[in-house]
C-alpha cells in the first residue's frame, strides 16, 4: 500500500527522471569509456551485478557512523563516514554505468534514484569536510549533515530496490526458465551462415547461428533486458544484442561483454531425418 501510494503520487509523475538520466548518461559515457571497464562495473566478470553488491559498503559504514555520532564517539564516526563515503563513490560509478543501459520506467526511476544519492553525497562531503577540519563547524554540524545525507540514502535505496524487485531491472530474464532433456523439433530446416536466425523449439524461441557445418543455438531472449538476439549481429565468435550491446559466446552462451551479467541458456542442435532439433544443455 505504501509503495503504491509513493509510486502513484510521486515516482510515476516524476518524468524528469528520464531527462536527468539522459544527462547523467552523457557525462558517464564520456568518463567511463572503455568497453572492458564498463563491463567491469556492470559485474559481467562476476556473473552478478556489481552495483547492489557495492552498496553494502556505504550502507554499513554510514549506519555505523550515524550510531557512533549519536553516541558521541566522533573519532570512530569520522573514519566510518570516510569508509562509507568511499564505498558510495564506487557504488555510484557502477550505478551510473548500469543506468546508461536502462529504458522506460526503469530509466525514470533510475534517474530519481541517482539524483537522491547525489544529494546524499553532497551532504556527506560537507560532513567529511567538517570532520577532518577542511570546513568550519562542530561535531553537531557534522552529525546533522550526515543524518540528512543518510535520510536521502534511505529514500534512494527504497527506489533502488523498486528498480530491481518491482521493475525487474538487471534481473536474469531466464531466472524461472527450467532446463529439459528432450529434443524438440525446430521450425526451420536451413540456417544461413553467420546470420542470426530465429526459430521455435516447442514453447522456446531460439536464435541459431551456423558457422561452417556447426549450428549453435541460444535462447533468443537476451538475459539482460529481454531484447531479441536474432535481431543482433555476429561479432567474431559471439552474438551481440541489438539493444545495449551485450555479447554472448555462440558456442555456449557465456556472457563476455555487458551490461548483461548472466549467461544465455544454450542448446545443442542435431539433424534428424532431414529436420533440425534442439535441446537445452545449460
Ligand atoms: S537487452 Fe540489454 S543487452 Fe540485450
Explain this structure to me?
The structure is a single chain. With about 280 residues, this protein is of the alpha+beta class. The protein has 2 domains: about 160 residues; about 100 residues, Rieske Iron-sulfur Protein, CATH 2.102.10.10. Helix content is about 50%, strand content about 15%. The strands form 2 sheets. It has a 6-stranded antiparallel sheet with strand order 1-10-9-4-3-2, with no helix packed on it. Strand 9 and strand 10 form a beta hairpin. Helix 7 runs antiparallel to helix 8. It is elongated. The mean pLDDT is about 90. The chain binds FE2/S2 (inorganic) cluster (FES).
Topology (SSEs and partners):
Elements: H1 2-9, H2 16-31, H3 35-42, H4 50-54, H5 56-71, H6 74-99, H7 104-131, H8 139-165, E1 184-185, E2 197-201, E3 204-211, E4 214-219, E5 233-235, E6 238-240, E7 247-249, E8 255-257, E9 266-272, E10 275-280
Antiparallel strand pairs: 1-10, 2-3, 3-4, 4-9, 5-6, 6-7, 7-8, 9-10
Helix pairs in contact: 2-6, 2-7, 5-6, 5-8, 6-7, 7-8
The structure holds FE2/S2 (inorganic) cluster.
Compounds present?
Answer: FE2/S2 (inorganic) cluster
Number of strands: 10
Q: How many H/I helices?
A: 8
- Please bin the fraction of helical residues: 40-55%
Look at the helices and sheets and give the structural class.
alpha+beta
Low-confidence stretches: none
What general outline do the C-alpha atoms trace? elongated
Query: What does the radius of gyration come to?
Result: 23 Å
The portion of residues forming beta strands comes to 15-25%
Task: Please indicate the count of domains.
Answer: 2
Main β-sheet, in a few words?
A: 6 strands, antiparallel
Distance between the termini: 39 Å
Strand order of the largest sheet: 1-10-9-4-3-2
Calculate the mean pLDDT score and round it: 92
- Element string (H = helix, E = strand): HHHHHHHHEEEEEEEEEE
Amino acid at each position: 500500500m505504501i509503495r503504491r501510494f509513493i509510486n502513484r503520487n510521486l515516482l510515476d509523475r516524476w518524468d524528469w527522471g528520464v531527462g536527468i538520466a539522459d544527462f547523467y548518461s552523457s557525462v558517464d559515457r564520456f568518463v567511463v569509456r572503455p568497453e572492458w571497464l564498463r563491463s567491469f562495473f556492470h559485474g559481467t566478470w562476476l556473473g552478478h551485478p556489481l552495483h547492489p553488491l557495492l552498496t553494502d559498503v556505504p550502507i554499513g559504514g554510514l549506519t555505523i557512523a550515524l550510531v557512533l555520532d549519536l553516541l558521541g564517539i566522533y573519532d570512530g564516526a569520522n573514519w566510518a563516514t570516510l569508509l562509507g563515503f568511499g564505498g558510495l563513490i564506487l557504488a555510484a560509478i557502477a550505478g551510473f554505468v548500469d543506468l546508461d543501459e536502462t529504458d522506460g520506467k526503469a530509466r525514470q526511476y533510475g534517474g530519481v534514484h541517482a539524483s537522491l544519492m547525489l544529494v546524499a553525497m553532497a551532504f556527506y562531503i560537507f560532513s567529511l569536510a567538517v570532520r577532518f577540519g577542511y570546513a568550519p563547524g562542530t561535531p553537531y554540524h557534522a552529525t546533522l549533515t550526515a543524518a540528512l545525507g543518510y535520510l536521502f540514502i534511505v529514500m534512494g535505496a527504497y527506489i533502488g530496490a523498486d528498480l530491481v524487485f518491482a521493475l525487474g531491472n538487471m534481473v536474469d530474464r531466464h531466472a524461472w526458465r527450467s532446463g529439459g532433456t528432450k529434443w524438440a523439433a525446430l521450425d526451420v530446416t536451413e540456417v544461413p551462415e553467420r546470420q542470426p536466425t530465429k526459430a521455435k523449439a516447442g514453447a522456446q524461441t531460439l536464435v541459431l547461428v551456423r558457422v561452417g557445418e556447426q549450428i549453435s543455438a541460444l535462447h533468443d531472449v537476451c538475459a539482460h533486458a529481454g531484447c531479441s538476439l536474432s535481431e543482433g549481429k555476429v561479432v567474431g565468435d559471439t552474438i551481440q544484442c541489438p539493444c545495449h550491446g551485450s555479447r554472448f559466446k555462440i558456442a555456449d552462451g557465456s556472457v563476455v561483454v555487458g551490461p548483461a551479467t548472466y549467461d544465455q541458456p544454450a542448446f545443442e542442435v542435431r539433424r534428424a531425418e532431414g529436420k533440425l532439433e534442439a535441446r537445452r544443455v545449460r
